[in-house]
Amino acid sequence: MLYTASITTNANTPLNAPTQTIIKVAREVLHRFYVYFPPGCSGLVYVQIMHGEHPILPVNKGSWMRGDDLLIEGPTWQELTSETNIMTINTANLDTVNTHEVLVGLFIDQKGVLLPIGAYEGIISALKSLVWRGVPV
Protein backbone atom coordinates (compact mmCIF):
# COMPACT_ATOMS: atom_id res chain seq x y z
CA MET A 1 0.00 0.00 0.00
CA LEU A 2 1.28 3.42 -0.92
CA TYR A 3 0.37 6.36 1.29
CA THR A 4 1.21 9.80 -0.08
CA ALA A 5 1.07 13.37 1.14
CA SER A 6 1.66 16.66 -0.62
CA ILE A 7 2.50 19.00 2.23
CA THR A 8 2.56 22.79 1.99
CA THR A 9 4.37 24.58 4.79
CA ASN A 10 4.08 28.32 5.36
CA ALA A 11 7.09 30.61 5.56
CA ASN A 12 8.51 31.12 9.06
CA THR A 13 7.41 27.72 10.39
CA PRO A 14 10.11 26.93 12.99
CA LEU A 15 11.63 23.56 13.85
CA ASN A 16 10.26 23.77 17.40
CA ALA A 17 6.66 24.29 16.15
CA PRO A 18 6.42 22.32 12.89
CA THR A 19 3.39 21.76 10.73
CA GLN A 20 2.06 18.26 11.49
CA THR A 21 0.44 16.12 8.82
CA ILE A 22 -1.27 12.97 10.11
CA ILE A 23 -1.57 9.81 8.00
CA LYS A 24 -3.51 6.83 9.31
CA VAL A 25 -1.78 3.65 8.07
CA ALA A 26 -2.10 -0.11 8.39
CA ARG A 27 -0.24 -1.76 11.29
CA GLU A 28 2.21 -3.59 9.07
CA VAL A 29 5.75 -2.87 7.83
CA LEU A 30 7.07 0.37 6.39
CA HIS A 31 9.48 -1.01 3.79
CA ARG A 32 10.17 1.90 1.46
CA PHE A 33 9.83 5.67 1.52
CA TYR A 34 10.46 8.80 -0.48
CA VAL A 35 10.63 12.50 0.29
CA TYR A 36 10.90 14.96 -2.60
CA PHE A 37 12.07 18.54 -2.09
CA PRO A 38 11.18 20.46 -5.28
CA PRO A 39 13.47 23.17 -6.71
CA GLY A 40 13.31 26.34 -4.66
CA CYS A 41 13.31 24.74 -1.21
CA SER A 42 16.96 25.84 -0.94
CA GLY A 43 17.60 23.57 2.06
CA LEU A 44 15.20 25.67 4.12
CA VAL A 45 12.38 23.09 4.30
CA TYR A 46 12.79 20.32 6.87
CA VAL A 47 10.97 16.97 7.13
CA GLN A 48 10.85 14.24 9.76
CA ILE A 49 8.54 11.23 9.95
CA MET A 50 7.35 9.92 13.31
CA HIS A 51 5.38 6.88 14.48
CA GLY A 52 3.92 7.92 17.80
CA GLU A 53 6.81 9.52 19.70
CA HIS A 54 9.43 7.49 17.83
CA PRO A 55 11.41 8.93 14.92
CA ILE A 56 11.21 6.79 11.79
CA LEU A 57 13.05 8.98 9.27
CA PRO A 58 15.64 10.06 10.05
CA VAL A 59 16.02 7.52 12.82
CA ASN A 60 18.08 9.67 15.19
CA LYS A 61 15.87 11.78 17.44
CA GLY A 62 15.86 15.49 16.69
CA SER A 63 17.27 15.10 13.17
CA TRP A 64 15.62 16.32 9.99
CA MET A 65 15.89 15.73 6.24
CA ARG A 66 16.21 18.76 3.97
CA GLY A 67 17.19 19.55 0.40
CA ASP A 68 16.60 21.41 -2.84
CA ASP A 69 15.48 19.63 -6.02
CA LEU A 70 16.31 16.43 -4.15
CA LEU A 71 14.64 13.04 -3.93
CA ILE A 72 15.51 11.11 -0.78
CA GLU A 73 14.27 7.55 -1.10
CA GLY A 74 15.19 4.07 -0.14
CA PRO A 75 14.42 0.88 1.67
CA THR A 76 13.72 0.68 5.36
CA TRP A 77 12.25 -1.95 7.66
CA GLN A 78 10.07 -0.46 10.37
CA GLU A 79 7.46 -2.70 11.94
CA LEU A 80 4.47 -0.61 12.90
CA THR A 81 3.30 -2.78 15.77
CA SER A 82 2.37 -0.34 18.52
CA GLU A 83 -1.18 0.50 19.47
CA THR A 84 -1.23 3.55 17.24
CA ASN A 85 -1.41 3.35 13.48
CA ILE A 86 -0.76 7.07 13.03
CA MET A 87 2.26 8.43 11.17
CA THR A 88 3.07 12.09 11.74
CA ILE A 89 5.02 14.01 9.14
CA ASN A 90 6.57 17.11 10.67
CA THR A 91 7.60 19.92 8.34
CA ALA A 92 9.31 23.22 9.04
CA ASN A 93 10.09 26.07 6.67
CA LEU A 94 12.82 28.52 7.63
CA ASP A 95 12.29 30.57 4.46
CA THR A 96 11.11 33.98 5.63
CA VAL A 97 9.18 34.78 2.42
CA ASN A 98 8.00 31.72 0.48
CA THR A 99 5.62 28.88 1.19
CA HIS A 100 7.02 25.51 0.05
CA GLU A 101 5.62 22.09 -0.79
CA VAL A 102 7.21 18.66 -0.26
CA LEU A 103 5.97 15.25 -1.39
CA VAL A 104 6.15 12.22 0.88
CA GLY A 105 5.43 8.58 0.05
CA LEU A 106 5.27 5.63 2.44
CA PHE A 107 5.10 2.04 1.16
CA ILE A 108 3.53 -0.21 3.79
CA ASP A 109 2.76 -3.91 3.33
CA GLN A 110 2.15 -7.08 5.27
CA LYS A 111 5.16 -8.61 6.96
CA GLY A 112 4.55 -12.05 5.45
CA VAL A 113 4.65 -10.63 1.93
CA LEU A 114 8.00 -8.83 2.27
CA LEU A 115 11.59 -9.91 2.62
CA PRO A 116 13.80 -7.87 4.97
CA ILE A 117 16.30 -5.41 3.53
CA GLY A 118 19.29 -7.26 2.11
CA ALA A 119 17.43 -10.52 1.62
CA TYR A 120 16.95 -9.90 -2.10
CA GLU A 121 20.63 -9.14 -2.56
CA GLY A 122 21.58 -12.26 -0.63
CA ILE A 123 19.28 -14.45 -2.71
CA ILE A 124 20.59 -13.00 -5.99
CA SER A 125 24.20 -13.44 -4.85
CA ALA A 126 23.56 -17.08 -3.89
CA LEU A 127 21.87 -17.79 -7.23
CA LYS A 128 24.74 -16.17 -9.13
CA SER A 129 27.29 -18.28 -7.28
CA LEU A 130 25.37 -21.44 -8.20
CA VAL A 131 24.82 -20.50 -11.82
CA TRP A 132 28.22 -18.99 -12.62
CA ARG A 133 30.46 -21.28 -10.57
CA GLY A 134 33.19 -22.06 -13.07
CA VAL A 135 30.80 -22.25 -15.98
CA PRO A 136 31.89 -20.15 -18.97
CA VAL A 137 29.21 -17.74 -20.02
Describe the structure using short key phrases.
five-stranded antiparallel sheet, four-stranded antiparallel sheet, 9% helix, mainly beta, 137 residues
Protein architecture, described:
The protein is mainly beta and 137 residues long. It has one helix spanning 119-131, and strands at 2-9, 19-24, 29-37, 45-51, 54-57, 65-66, 70-79, 86-93, 100-109. The strands form 2 sheets. Strands 2, 4, 5, 6 and 8 form a 5-stranded antiparallel beta sheet that branches. Strand 4 (45-51) and strand 5 (54-57) form a beta hairpin. The chain is globular and about 45 Å long. The termini are far apart. The model has no long low-confidence stretch (mean pLDDT 84).
Order of helices and strands: EEEEEEEEEH
Number of helices: 1
Structure class = mainly beta
Strand content: over 45%
Share of residues in helices: under 10%
Distance between the termini: 40 Å
Outline type: globular
Main β sheet profile: 5 strands, antiparallel
Name the average pLDDT: 84
Task: Output the radius of gyration.
Answer: 18 Å
Oligomeric assembly: single chain
- Strand segment tally: 9
